[in-house]
Structure formats: C-alpha cells, structure tokens
C-alpha cells in the first residue's frame, strides 16, 4: 500500500507547494502509533519542517509501554519543546499515539495550542482490531515475566486503564481535530468521533494516514490557523 500511497503524496500539490513561512516556527510534537517509532512519522515531520514548523518526535520508543508512563514522557517532551520554541505547541498523534497525545493535552493544556489525532480510538482504547489486542496482551504477559518497558495487565484492565479511559474523553481546552476513515481496518471509525474535536473524514487505510495527501489537505489550513493565532497573540502581548 505504501508503494502506491507515497508516490501519490509526493506528486500532490499539498506536498509540492511548500511555503516555509506558514508555520512561523510553531512547535509540533509527534507521537507514533502502537508498536511504531518516531521514524513512522518521517513524512509528516518532513512536511511540517518544509512549511516552517518545528517538529520533534515524542521520544516514546516503539510505543509499547505503560500508558501513564508514556504520557509522563510526552509531558516532559512538551515542556522541553515549549521552552525551545517559546510557547505552546501542537500535539500530533497517530492511532494509539493520538490517544496518548489527547491524555497529555488534557493534563497540560497550558503547553498545547492544538491537537491532531489520526485514526485514534479515543472513545474505546480497547476497541481496536482483535489482532492488536492480542499483541497488547502478549506484551502484558512478557511484562509479567519481568521484561521491562512494556505495558502490563493494569494498563489493559486495572486502575491504570480505568483512570486513563476516564481521562480520555475529558473536555479539551484547545482546538482539536480527529481524522477518521471508514476504510480503517484497525480502528472502527466511530471510535474516533471525539465530542471535543472537529471530526474530519478521509478515505485512507489506518497505517496509511501519515502518507495520505487527503490528510495533509485537511490539516494544512487548520495548522496554519493555529500558527497564525498563536503568534498573533504573542505579538499582541
């Protein structure tokens, strides 16, 4: 699928027409999906940088750890990037990364000026494809055997899970966009209909959202508006 989607993206005007002033130095922290690393969002990172944003990875490794610990790490990266760029930043997450980004944004709204979630099961983190849940349970089993750095059973059904599910739909204090696709074979699209976000439909696979030009067409004006609003407010102050 990537072999078809990447050439389509690279030929599309949304990729080719880059205004380096558009982002005005606005910081963006990108959070990868379950089992993926910052490398999985390389195209998004490149697209943002070419338009004058300052993107960085969230530094959560392969995103297979405990939810609460990963949100702690995202919060730390947010603090660092806010200091580097001089003000609140955008959080952009794919799949599980979008859910983690939402938790971090709800916890620290002072650090976030906008939130983007791509194919994220916000309404039910356990509602993903059964194969994904099997992988998560396998990781919890390894954690029980003493393998460090993995989510454990508490992340799937215990106090950690309950606390984070309750926080996952808390009202947001910043603008948010939830991108969903009815062609998503991993996350049922209904689970991405965040009541606190602007929900935008695209026609993409789950893993292909970071490579789909329609996603960038949808995000470009919204990100540019957030950049303009943040820097207009900063200059006015």
From TrEMBL:
* TM helices/strands, residue ranges: none
Domain AB hydrolase-1, by residue range, is 32-135
Top-rank taxon, per record = Bacteria
Extract the signal peptide range: none
Mind listing the GO molecular function terms for this protein? catalytic activity
Q: What is this protein called?
A: AB hydrolase-1 domain-containing protein
What are the leading ranks of the lineage? Bacteria, Bacillati, Actinomycetota, Actinomycetes, Pseudonocardiales
């Amino acid at each position: 699928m990537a072999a078809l989607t990447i050439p389509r993206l690279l030929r599309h005007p949304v990729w080719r027409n880059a205004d380096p002033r558009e982002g005005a130095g606005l910081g963006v922290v990108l959070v990868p999906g379950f089992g993926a690393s910052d490398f999985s969002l390389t195209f998004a990172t490149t697209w943002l940088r070419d338009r004058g944003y300052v993107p960085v990875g969230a530094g959560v490794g392969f995103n297979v750890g405990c939810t609460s610990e990963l949100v702690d790490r995202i919060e730390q990266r947010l603090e660092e990037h806010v200091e580097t760029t001089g003000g609140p930043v955008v959080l952009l997450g794919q799949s599980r990364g979008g859910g983690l980004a939402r938790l971090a944004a709800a916890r620290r709204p002072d650090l976030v000026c906008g939130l983007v979630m791509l194919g994220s099961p916000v309404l039910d983190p356990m509602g993903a494809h059964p194969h994904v849940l099997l992988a998560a349970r396998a990781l919890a089993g390894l954690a029980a055997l003493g393998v460090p750095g993995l989510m454990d059973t508490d992340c799937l059904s215990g106090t950690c899970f309950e606390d984070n599910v309750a926080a996952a739909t808390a009202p947001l204090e910043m603008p948010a966009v939830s991108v969903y696709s009815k062609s998503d074979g991993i996350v049922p699209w209904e689970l991405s209909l965040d009541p606190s976000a602007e929900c935008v439909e695209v026609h993409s696979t789950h893993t292909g959202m970071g490579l789909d030009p329609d996603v960038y067409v949808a995000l470009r004006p919204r990100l540019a508006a957030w950049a303009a609003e943040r820097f207009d407010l900063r200059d006015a102050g």
